[in-house]
């Protein structure tokens, strides 16, 4: 979920200075219209890692808007009064009335996340709280609220850098305590828990907005723009919102995203390729014969641009496997039988039993890629698909499946070259159709859809691996290595279903 | 939740014989139209207690409809194949295609319920499964399915009678095993767990239908009619259903319901009343001074027909309390401040801290009573209110609050008598308004709304007490006694939040 927020986003000082006055004017306008109309309470959760700029962002919002109609609610340990009532009571008391903006510094998420990290809450207990939160937020949205949940993210190094910078500056040094540095030690644990909680509460009615926290200008500008867009969109809406509140929001104001950051020039020398291929295929073939694999299964998902080399990569995997142990499932248009069932049915039927491998050549991600881009399904349907997919993969992982997902990316030029080659070579001509040429025209729409897909469905249990595939050999080695590493990690991890 | 299914519902043989042929013809029609249209899969869960007629009902449905387009899926212990895959895989495999009816004998509910009863699952673990089930069913409904979840209920005595009857009949004796009799011993435990699971999964998109199981004719006819109505309603709908699928379904084919069963002739002699009043007021005053009450709070809710005697009953409670320890919250039209907040906000703000008492004279139930009947809010809003209210009361109970809810019922004649008296007595005239006369005209609409309210919101944590209030003194004693008994029970129960 944090992929897009680990790219080192930055906004130039000049660009920032030019953008802010306009944004401020618009935000003020939106705020007054909100107040005038008096129908929508806006609930803004400002959360994230220590040092990721939560306080700074709140200050900027106050500076940019009219502070008389914003209230900030900060929550730390509950008071006496609060401890003697249901946990949600303190938040109910703090809800902003219609027409106002309530900024929550620390929210109903803080308690469960920290209790879980400190070991004071079981995984199932956490899930129950998460469910309660989802119901609470759904009720608020049904009552007309606009909920914006910001999570400011830092990489581990980024967090170190931020804490050091804060400590160095005498104006902010007081904010960095031993406690913060101790927390840095539990970075991975926090990421684990947060990743889970954010995934489970990434609902269509109140999705998370994850923003990289390191660069002040990027963070402030992005937060401001998203807030503005969301308020405008709701003000323009004729009635209160019930179903999907929020199509994915772009967080790439600086033009950088997970795809643009790939170095497609990566290559591997032929000799090296042959050695590596042999090495990883050998390793894979050992791993699937390992007795520990009897309690696991392997599910590989291949998605990628047309002509990105999915088929070739799949064959390099299956070369290491016994034909009795694996199944390749190519996903094309659904059969009649499949059309008579829920969308996910045709994937469920191919789930391998323990000790087996299933390779999906294209997959359930069709819904948020081709179906979204081509308009084959309603917006509400592909929007709800993200969480349905996450649920599905979560269930697979819980049952012991290792889910490895690849996106194969090639450059637009490289694709053109491959298309033309395919047209020339007789036995490859079946591989290139008019549809491929048409898809190519939608390159940019696919680009956004892929970035959203990675942000919303790359989870701790089932992360995406983006593969630089201009060099087919490089791609194949990376894929084989990733599969092997995921298997090894799964064998090592003791708790299949931690509780 | 089981109130309406404990009234001893029965259908006459003659009435049944007359009703069945027509129902069969309609069901067949509906089934063919369903198949013809080929858009809606119908998923029928047949669940309930041992001996409550699950098997019989399935057989009747087969007899009444065309068995070629129904499939029955029975699930017991998972097979080898199933154990090696996610728990939901077996159910995915069994889903009926569009246009067909799939009857599930045993379903995704059976496993979690039994694991919890047998102590193989924590409460939090159960809640996580419940959440997963809710997401699964929501996905099915979003994909166009119609889900009907039947729960056949028996009282403890009813179950004993049914098992004996089955054992006596040589044709059915084989079905009753030692296991069934053993299960009877865990009746209360089962009811506890089932009550919780049903409440948590009583979603607007797939609500439970609870039917008394003892009388074969009543059970079959009710099930058949509800199935028919639901299919017809969906076929008539222009598009697939997203929001509320199901307004409450009437299960009183024999004209009996929780209100009609009240014996309004109950009275208490004057002398007896005085003794009892003194006794229970004394007891209450002891109980709220008990050190154990320091960890608890008491929330009393009074709802009832106009002139049913709410005010008088409240005064009999407060007479036993210290004015510093309680607060009476009369609920009338919301203030401006309250209107700017979510519906439940104005109740949250009055939640007592531990050691205190809050008495609500009318309450959050306004939404499913007056607002529903008068059309003050949209159907979707009062439909979602049932589960919001249950969530709310569940949170209160989790935090140690004892929630005691009273519905005061008087007869229509008695109400008329009291209205006229009020008009005559000068100091009571403010208590009778034109609105009271208008409400009286909607007696029947209120009657249905009250029955639905009791069925949907009487939970283990916060059950309704229906009070026969034609005799004010009788009502007051019953109310005081109930409050005392609930406090005593809460002090005795050790596990505040069982885990």
Automatic annotation (TrEMBL), chains A, B:
GO molecular function: polyphosphate:AMP phosphotransferase activity
Domain Polyphosphate kinase-2-related: 11-234, 269-492
Alphabetized SUPFAM superfamilies for the sequence: P-loop containing nucleoside triphosphate hydrolases
EC annotation from Swiss-Prot or TrEMBL: 2.7.4.-
InterPro entries: P-loop_NTPase (IPR027417), PolyP_AMP_Tfrase (IPR022489), PPK2-related (IPR022488)
EC category name: transferase
Keyword match Transferase: yes
TM region positions: none
One Gene Ontology term from the biological process aspect of the record: polyphosphate metabolic process
KW Magnesium (keyword) present: no
Keywords of this entry: Transferase
Any Pfam family the entry gives: PPK2
Protein name: Polyphosphate:AMP phosphotransferase
Organism whose genome encodes this protein: Denitratisoma oestradiolicum
């Amino acid at each position: 979920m944090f992929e897009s927020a680990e790219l080192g986003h930055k906004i130039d000082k000049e660009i920032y200075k030019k953008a802010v006055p306009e944004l401020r004017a618009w935000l003020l306008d939106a705020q007054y219209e909100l107040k005038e109309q008096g129908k929508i309470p806006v609930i803004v959760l400002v959360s994230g890692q220590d040092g990721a700029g939560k306080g700074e962002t709140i200050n900027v919002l106050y500076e940019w808007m009219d502070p008389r109609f914003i209230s900030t609610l900060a929550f730390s340990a509950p008071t006496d009064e609060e401890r003697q009532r249901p946990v949600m009571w303190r938040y109910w008391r703090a809800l902003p009335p219609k027409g106002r903006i309530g900024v929550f510094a620390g929210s109903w998420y803080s308690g469960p996340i920290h209790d879980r990290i400190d070991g004071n809450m079981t995984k199932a207990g956490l899930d129950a709280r998460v469910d309660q939160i989802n119901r609470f937020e759904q009720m608020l949205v049904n009552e007309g609220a606009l909920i914006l949940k910001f999570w400011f993210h830092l990489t581990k190094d980024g967090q170190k850098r931020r804490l050091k910078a804060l400590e160095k500056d005498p104006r902010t040094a007081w904010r960095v305590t031993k406690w913060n540095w101790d927390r840095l030690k539990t970075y991975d644990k926090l990421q684990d828990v947060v990743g889970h909680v954010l995934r489970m509460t990434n609902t269509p009615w109140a999705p998370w907005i994850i923003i990289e926290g390191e660069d002040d200008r990027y963070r402030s500008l992005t937060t401001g723009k998203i807030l503005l867009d969301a308020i405008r969109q709701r003000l323009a809406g004729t009635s209160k919102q019930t179903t999907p509140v929020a199509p994915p929001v772009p967080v790439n104001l600086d033009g950088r995203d997970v795809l643009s950051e790939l170095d497609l020039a990566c290559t591997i020398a032929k000799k090296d390729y042959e050695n590596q291929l042999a090495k990883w295929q050998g390793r894979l073939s050992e791993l699937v014969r390992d007795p520990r694999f009897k309690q696991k299964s392997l599910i590989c998902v291949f998605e990628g641009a047309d002509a990105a080399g999915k088929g070739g990569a799949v064959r390099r995997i299956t070369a290491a496997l016994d034909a009795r142990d694996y199944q390749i499932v190519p996903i094309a248009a659904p059969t009649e039988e499949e059309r008579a069932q829920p969308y996910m049915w045709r994937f469920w039927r191919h789930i391998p039993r323990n000790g087996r491998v299933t390779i999906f050549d294209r997959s359930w991600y069709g819904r948020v890629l081709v179906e979204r881009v081509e308009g084959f399904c309603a917006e509400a349907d592909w929007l709800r698909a993200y969480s349905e997919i996450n649920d599905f993969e979560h269930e697979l992982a819980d049952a012991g499946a290792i889910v490895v997902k690849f996106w194969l990316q090639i450059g637009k030029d490289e694709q053109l070259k491959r298309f033309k080659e395919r047209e020339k070579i007789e036995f490859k001509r079946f591989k290139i159709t008019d549809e491929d040429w048409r898809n190519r025209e939608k390159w940019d729409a696919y680009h956004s859809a892929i970035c959203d897909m990675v942000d919303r469905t790359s989870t701790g249990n089932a992360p995406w691996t983006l593969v630089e595939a201009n060099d087919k050999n490089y791609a194949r080695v990376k894929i084989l290595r990733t599969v092997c590493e995921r298997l090894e990690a799964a064998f090592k991890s003791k708790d299949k279903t931690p509780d």
